């Protein structure tokens, strides 16, 4: 028995003892349509799962307001400034990015650039503020969830097509034998080649049967065995038409995309 990486979802993968993990309810609904079986598939995200793991250990995830207050405390401890609130706000996004990346903060403290040293000092001071209150920042969630895992079970991870390093770390930590991670490796996801290499070094195996079935299905001109990610990839590449009820909007930049999405809410 092992843990498996596949590039596309196959209905035969869905088993009663396999808990399905999806980022949102729409993807869970898609799986229900593809599977068309009596097996109950409800939306349960990797974030929610990891939050529950961390909370069972007695660790809280700091709220947005509480984390800002603790960061302001850290600014007061390690920096000389009259504008504590503004300084904390300016550093917040960068520190969260550092937490998500998993970088060693002590390395930043030893950097020759004084600005990077200052960033490292502030991040460590903020981390100490959190630790004293048995809290973590939301950006630390997946890394914290990936440590000291005492229990694994079989999962099917679907919808995490471009996972970040911290997401992969927690998936690898909590996935038990017979777990399946759907991870496309076509031209739209070049970074996943590296992710597959790392996962295989952790004991995961590539499962190619579904890829071969998908190739045969494509030759027949059938889309029935394709998941929503593959259908949308084909639409993006101009190889297929959009599924019923779906629309594709192209925006010139992120700001216009945000405005466009808000008009649809």
- Name the poorly predicted regions: 210-225
Order of helices and strands: EEHHEHHHHEHEHEHEHHH
Rg over alpha carbons = 22 Å
Q: What is the quaternary state of this protein? A: single chain
Number of strand elements: 7
Morphology: globular
Mean pLDDT: 85
Provide the structure class: alpha/beta
Examine the coordinates and then state which fold CATH places here, giving the name of the CATH topology of the largest domain.
Answer: Rossmann fold
N-to-C CA distance = 45 Å
> What's the architecture of the largest domain, going by CATH?
3-Layer(aba) Sandwich
Question: CATH class of the largest domain, please?
Answer: Alpha Beta
Strand content: 5-15%
The helical percent reads 40-55%
Mind describing the biggest β-sheet?
A: 5 strands, parallel
Strand order of the largest sheet: 2-5-6-1-7
Number of helices: 12
Précis, in short:
With 265 residues, the protein is an alpha/beta fold. It is 50% helix and 8% strand.
């Amino acid at each position: 028995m092992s843990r498996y990486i596949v590039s596309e979802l196959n209905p035969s993968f869905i088993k009663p003892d396999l808990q399905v993990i999806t980022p949102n309810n729409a993807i869970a609904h898609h799986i229900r349509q593809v599977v068309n079986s009596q097996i109950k598939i409800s939306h349960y995200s990797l974030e929610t799962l990891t939050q529950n793991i961390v909370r069972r250990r007695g660790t809280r995830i700091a709220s947005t307001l509480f984390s800002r207050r603790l960061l302001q405390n850290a600014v007061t401890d390690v920096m000389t400034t009259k504008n504590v609130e503004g300084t904390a706000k300016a550093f917040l996004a960068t520190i969260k990015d550092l937490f998500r990346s998993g970088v060693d903060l002590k390395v930043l403290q030893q950097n020759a650039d004084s600005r990077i040293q200052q960033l490292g000092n502030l991040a460590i001071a903020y981390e100490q503020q959190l630790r004293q209150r048995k809290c973590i920042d939301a950006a630390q969630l997946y890394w914290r969830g990936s440590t000291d895992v005492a229990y694994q079970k079989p999962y099917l991870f679907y919808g995490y097509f471009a996972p970040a390093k911290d997401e992969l770390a927690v998936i690898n930590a909590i996935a038990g034998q017979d777990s399946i991670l759907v991870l496309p490796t076509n031209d739209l996801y070049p970074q996943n080649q590296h992710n597959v290499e790392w996962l295989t070094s952790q004991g995961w195996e590539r499962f190619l049967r579904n890829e071969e079935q998908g190739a045969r299905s494509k030759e027949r001109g059938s889309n029935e065995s394709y998941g929503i990610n593959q259908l949308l990839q084909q639409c993006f590449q101009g190889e297929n038409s959009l599924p019923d009820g779906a629309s594709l909007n192209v925006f010139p930049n992120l700001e216009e995309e945000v405005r466009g999405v808000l008009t649809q809410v």
